[in-house]
Design goal:
The structure is a homodimer. The first copy, chain A, has helices at about 15-20, 35-40, 60-70, 110-115, 115-120, 135-140, 155-160, 215-225, 260-270, 290-295; strands at about 5-10, 25-30, 50-55, 60, 75-85, 85-90, 105, 125-130, 150, 165, 175-185, 195-205, 230-235, 245-250, 270-285. By secondary structure, the first copy, chain A, is an alpha/beta fold. In chain A, the strands form 2 sheets. In chain A, strands 1, 2, 3, 4, 5, 11, 12, 13, 14 and 15 form a 10-stranded mixed β-sheet that branches. Chain A starts with a strand and ends with a helix. Chains A, B: This is Prephenate dehydratase.
Chain lengths: ~300, ~300
């Protein structure tokens, strides 16, 4: 199977890095926003979308959860967890020990993730936000005469021919981002370069109007069946303060007895339950050789 | 008592509107960011801070929760829920029926909240983001010769002398934002113009490392005591994907039996529990006369 993949672009974003591990040989279509990625699958422009859904530091990507629940009906067909490693990079003309930039460009999250490094090593140098880390790298590549630098990933350095002068400048070594694969049909992961961790099932649960104590009942339906929850997350229903729906991740594949039993019990309690997907979970254990990934992208 | 209040500025933001209801006669210090508001109280520059914590459409304000849990130790001393009403405004020189702006300025959330109006009435006109709705109003005031408009609240229109040509252009009429009062000591609400709704207690609960089923146990400790939860929200611990803490709101004041009993039970289960505050809850029922608020601000 060969797929066309809508992903949160431009080229060389962390989403692109995730796609290159899951689908190293497939056609990629960069999109400007997360909703556009999902719309591309709904409209048939792409077979699947890959978008970020959660970061270990920032929490859930709300636009992904909200658009998935309120706007489109696209099953989750897979997930991949990748380490987030940020590097300091400059135009190769500026790759000299004495170089100090006038401005550092990156996405606001990347700047926040490198706060300690910036505070300690480059105090007082202004940081400017770009729409993605890759856009910052592109900006540095396009202006060799300016004293500027970017914070971005290794793929962006390779893509735009920049020199990484300070690798791994992120404050937390355990920072990861989880991306989901969204598709109308089942996806095959034949050429996947990541490690398979097991299966997951994601449910969206809306509590009945008078929900005092209802969440406890919901969790009981899973607890007495010994179904492991790896995540529970509340998001606003957009119908007024205090009205939430819950996203629940179960550490197993959809079965014919336990999960359907729990869903029936929740519905009997007056909850509205939607299956958002049952899918394989992948993890990137260590960095694959960058040059290899880059050569496949050409 | 007279307080000095650090709030998320500039003048005439929705936070300013909330402050004007809670503390109509007190001294206000606008701050550029939410962390700066909290730091001002920690450093003794201000007696209290007022910052947004949750919006009915966007969900929790993550920077507020995260800074409160990870960076500062400031009890929640009150909360106020205010309706969010957005208006379309222009420089009074441009207050003519045929006026069509070349650009519309506002905060990205306000632009999102008026999506249907903009799509229907002003399709194709570019929207530019500003750091606050008040900043958009100021920008329009400062450039009377330009064909520009702002989306902001009634306080900003009054503050910057703009003409509201289309009031209440927000898509959802039930949109509200909750703001919290943060202070080292108890706060008196003597001149408060909002309605008292009751009391709340907010707890932060960290589950033990092996937390499968632990959240269910946590909720049991509240459920069997018939303690009503009005909110449960997960946020990342920043120690790796899948590690969360939970913010729990109880619909009552801290007592001497039930809540301390629940906390002891949670601690016996291996949870780490922090009391974030026990405080009065206020609500703005309807708009107070704008001219009156504005005259008090002068």
């Amino acid at each position: 199977m060969s797929y066309s993949i809508a992903f949160l672009g431009p080229k060389a974003t962390f989403t692109d890095l995730a796609v290159s591990r899951l689908f190293p040989d497939d056609a990629k279509i960069p999109m400007a926003t997360i909703p556009e990625c999902m719309d591309a699958v709904v409209d048939g422009q792409a077979d699947l979308a890959v978008v970020p859904i959660e970061n270990a530091l920032e929490g859930s990507v709300n636009i992904t959860l909200d658009y998935l629940v309120h706007e489109v009906n696209l099953p989750i067909s897979g997930e991949i967890i990748t380490p987030i490693q940020q590097h300091f990079m400059v135009h190769p003309d500026n790759d000299i020990p004495s170089f100090v930039p006038d401005v550092i460009y990156s996405h606001s999250h990347a700047i926040a993730q490198c706060h300690k490094f910036l505070h300690k090593e480059l105090r007082g140098i202004p940081c400017e936000n770009t729409t993605s880390t890759a856009a910052a790298a592109q900006l540095v590549m396009e202006q060799p005469g300016k004293k500027i630098a970017a914070i971005a990933n290794e793929l962006a350095a390779a893509e735009y021919g920049l020199a990484i002068t300070r690798p791994n400048i992120h404050d937390f070594s355990h920072n990861h981002t989880k991306f989901v694969v969204l598709s109308k049909s089942d996806i095959q992961y034949e050429n996947c370069l990541a490690t398979r961790r097991g299966d997951k099932t994601t449910l969206m649960v809306m509590l009945p109007a008078d929900h005092s104590g209802a969440l406890h009942q919901v969790l009981s339906a899973f607890a007495w069946r010994k179904l492991n929850l790896s995540k529970i997350e509340s998001r606003p229903m957009k119908t007024g303060l205090g009205n939430y729906f819950f996203i629940i991740d179960l550490e197993m594949k959809m079965d014919e007895v336990l999960i359907p039993g729990a869903i029936s019990e929740l519905e009997a309690l007056g909850c509205n339950v939607t299956l958002l997907g049952s899918y394989p979970s992948f993890m990137v254990e260590k960095s694959v050789d960058i040059a290899e990934i880059h050569s496949k992208m050409m």
